Amino acid sequence: MPSIEGARVLVIGGAGFLGSHIVDQLTLEPVREIVVLDNFVRGTRTNLRQAVRDPRVRVVDGSITDLDCLREVIRGSDYVFHLAALWLYECVHQPRSALEVNVVGTYNVVETAQAAGVKRIVYSSSASVYGDALLTPMTEEHPFNNRTMYGATKIAGEQFLRAFYEGHRLPYVGLRYMNIYGPRMDYQGTYVSVIMKVLDRIDQGLPPVIFGDGSQAYDFVHVEDVARANVLAMGSDVADEFFNVGMGVKTTINELVELLLKITGSPLEPEYRPQEQMFVTHRVGSTEKAERVLGFRARIPLEEGLRSVVAWRREDQRQPIVERA
Ligand SMILES: NC(=O)c1ccc[n+]([C@@H]2O[C@H](COP(=O)([O-])OP(=O)(O)OC[C@H]3O[C@@H](n4cnc5c(N)ncnc54)[C@H](O)[C@@H]3O)[C@@H](O)[C@H]2O)c1
């Protein structure tokens, strides 16, 4: 990775689930300094426990909505990973906060980065920009069929980057993730993934609940693969491009639950309930462009990846509550 050698790298949202794995992978690179900016609304210091043992890692508690803080932190940075965002469900329940963080905050990052002479930004977008699949395979050319506030904020972020590239030649790459899973995924907050909900039920000896007929299909990709895609995108020469980041494998909720029951050795049978509000029911991305241009291909098969989640969750639950914060 010659281009990030000796660089000062800023990871915004770096105490979160994905961000902390990017920080871990950066510590394996010959960078000079790794600065994490996070306001800890969702991220934790525990996620960075391993990384902060590296003297090149520094953690700043601050928000992208605070321009003075952002200017101070971004100054001198060569490269910026921007992951800070509020999530799908937060966007539903607190749309104005989502606007302030995901839209205005992202604009702050882009404007400040340009002013500070940052060489490159890797932006965490989402496959949410596509909404439900209209065409398959779902390539990066797929229309913005999004119908959620979350997707709207991600589209806005993508467009700011494109506009700044056009106006100022600030190089960037946007990554549109499919469903990321892996160690450090949130399992205690209000907004937890289906994987954690199923594991919660299994732990309680209750049948996992499947809403609808379980045929909804998604593309689950392991967080370590996604972190690697970020590092590859930062080290590449390509700019002004968006890439799907997924396995390219379609997994139904029925298959996912079956795998989790198998891994945990549970004899339980799933319980079917009428479908509640569903945002997206079918989304599997084409991985061709990321492989061809970035040389990225996800490597961790779903069963192996889910085993890593189950093992990490058991280990994490053994820690006292204060240690988990
Ligand atoms: N996890 C997925 O499946 C998935 C899928 C598609 C896209 N994404 C996107 O990838 C990125 C990372 O996702 P994640 O799963 O690691 O989420 P996460 O919530 O764990 O990480 C986001 C981090 O940003 C921080 N943050 C939030 N608001 C902030 C602010 N105002 N200032 C500074 N920091 C702030 C949070 O504390 C958190 O540590 C996000 O942009 C998310 O929208 C994630």
Q: Any overview of this molecule?
A:
The chain starts with 7 loop residues before the first strand and ends with a helix. The protein is built from 11 helices and 14 strands. The protein has a domain at 2-178 and 221-246 and 284-299: NAD(P)-binding Rossmann-like Domain (Rossmann fold, 3-Layer(aba) Sandwich). By secondary structure, it is α/β, with parallel strands linked by helices. Strands 3-2-1-4-5-6-11 form a 7-stranded parallel beta sheet, with helices on both faces. The protein has a 3-stranded mixed beta sheet with strand order 12-9-14. The longest helix is centred in the first third of the chain and has 21 residues, at 95-115. The structure holds nicotinamide-adenine-dinucleotide. Nicotinamide-adenine-dinucleotide (NAD) is lined by residues 13, 15-19, 37-43, 63-65, 83-85, 101, 105, 124, 126, 177, 179-180.
Q: Separation of termini?
A: 33 Å
Global structural class: alpha/beta
CATH superfamily of the domain at 2-178 and 221-246 and 284-299: NAD(P)-binding Rossmann-like Domain
What ligand species are in this complex?
nicotinamide-adenine-dinucleotide
Poorly predicted runs of 5 or more residues? none
Strand content: 15-25%
Question: Do you know the CATH architecture of the domain at 2-178 and 221-246 and 284-299?
Answer: 3-Layer(aba) Sandwich
Question: What's the total count of β strands?
Answer: 14
Envelope shape = globular
Largest beta-sheet characterization = 7 strands, parallel
Average pLDDT works out at: 94
Sequence of strands across the biggest β-sheet:
3-2-1-4-5-6-11
Topology pattern, helix = H, strand = E? EHEEHEHHEHEEHEEEHEEHEEHHH
Give the % helix: 25-40%
CATH T-level fold name of the domain at 2-178 and 221-246 and 284-299? Rossmann fold
CATH class of the domain at 2-178 and 221-246 and 284-299: Alpha Beta
